[in-house]
Design brief:
Blueprint: E1 2-7, H1 13-25, E2 29-34, H2 39-45, E3 51-54, H3 61-66, E4 72-75, H4 85-90, E5 94-97, H5 103-118, E6 134-138, H6 142-153, E7 157-161, H7 167-172, E8 176-177, H8 181-187, E9 190-193, H9 207-210, E10 218-221, H10 230-239, E11 244-247, H11 254-261, E12 265-267, H12 277-297
Parallel strand pairs: 1-2, 1-3, 3-4, 4-5, 6-7, 6-9, 7-8, 9-10, 10-11, 11-12
Helix pairs in contact: 1-12, 5-6
Bound molecules: 3-phosphoglyceric acid.
């Protein structure tokens, strides 16, 4: 079988070498297709692939149609909103993710972003400390729970909400359950967003929620840009000159936000939450093992299009 590692944002060389070892030692062919420029390049590259390992690469219906031999796609990471699940299912292609493998890297970035904004983007202006402040975690999954643990260790009070967890589970994870999403936003100096982009969540964080935040609060988004209602965010920052926004997933209206709000807004130049050597190894190797396992035993653990 041919396993293609198709990553526009490449893994470290060490991770690629280790992925190759797993694939080749299991008797498969390996090829890497990295740093490609256009989506059409990806469409062309997948023609003879039996399996794909991807990151945020867009596996559209066109990609799936072009990959005539494709049997399995593994998203080396958590979010799979970049894969057309319907097209994959129709074509009989199995889609998996590697949940938890890059969570620590993203959680560390969320904490770093809070401190960066608290200290006015590392300028000499007087900032604030995060110790003693309250953080609200929106979605208490793999990343959210790690953010909570780290925030607690830094002296923050931790609150969380998650539609898939009971209050008891949130308490067991070390956070105080919020009564509602509105309560979370109204109670916390920082809200860290960890929801996936789904039809239910797209555009769900807008003016009403953001302006509920207390004076001087910061919204931290290491999840997906699509979950933010960008016009609502812009209006909230306009009406509330004390609020800040920091993100690892740049909004489409970033230039406008930066021009209007200066140091109150920051976005990383390219999504980098999962871009640590450790996360590359964890997620990349897990993806390779899942593909090899599927071909050897038919194991479909972590399949997301069941
Ligand atoms: C994820 O969903 O796992 C993260 O957003 C990481 O995405 P990346 O692999 O494109 O860095």
């Amino acid at each position: 079988m041919k396993v293609l590692l198709a990553t526009q944002k490449p893994f470290s060389a060490a991770a690629v070498a280790a992925i190759k070892d797993i694939v080749v030692n299991a008797g498969h062919e390996f090829a890497a297709f990295e740093k490609y420029a256009e989506q059409s390049d990806l469409v062309a590259a997948v023609a003879d692939a039996d399996a794909l390992i991807i990151r945020s690469d867009k596996v559209t219906a066109e990609v799936i149609a072009a990959a005539k031999n494709l049997k399995i796609v593994v998203r080396a990471g958590a979010g799979f909103d970049n894969v057309d699940l319907e097209a994959a299912t129709k074509a009989g292609v199995i889609v998996m993710n590697t949940p938890g493998q890059n969570s620590n890297a993203v959680a560390e970035l969320a904490i770093a972003m809070m401190i960066f904004m608290a200290r006015t983007q590392f300028t000499p202006a007087t900032g604030t400390e995060i110790q003693g402040k309250k953080i609200g975690i929106q979605a208490f999954g793999n990343v959210g729970r790690l953010v909570g643990k780290k925030a607690e260790a830094l002296g923050m009070e931790v609150m969380a909400i998650d539609p898939f967890l009971t209050d008891e589970q949130i308490i067991a994870g070390g956070a105080k359950p919020a009564a509602s999403l509105e309560d979370l936003y109204a109670s916390c100096d920082y809200v860290s967003v960890h929801i996936p982009a789904t039809p239910q969540t797209v555009g769900s964080i807008g003016y009403d929620l953001i302006t509920k935040m207390p004076k001087g609060a910061t919204l931290v988004n290491t999840a997906r840009k699509e979950v933010i209602d960008e016009a609502g965010l812009e209006k909230a920052l306009e009406d509330r000159p004390d609020l800040k926004y920091v993100t690892d997933v740049a909004p489409d209206n970033l230039a406008v936000l930066q021009e209007k709000f200066g140091l109150r807004v920051f976005a990383t130049p390219k999504k980098m939450g999962a871009q640590s050597a450790e996360a590359n190894i964890n997620a990349g190797l897990a993806a390779a093992r899942q593909i090899v396992g599927y071909f050897e035993t038919g194991c479909t653990k972590f399949q997301v299009n069941k």
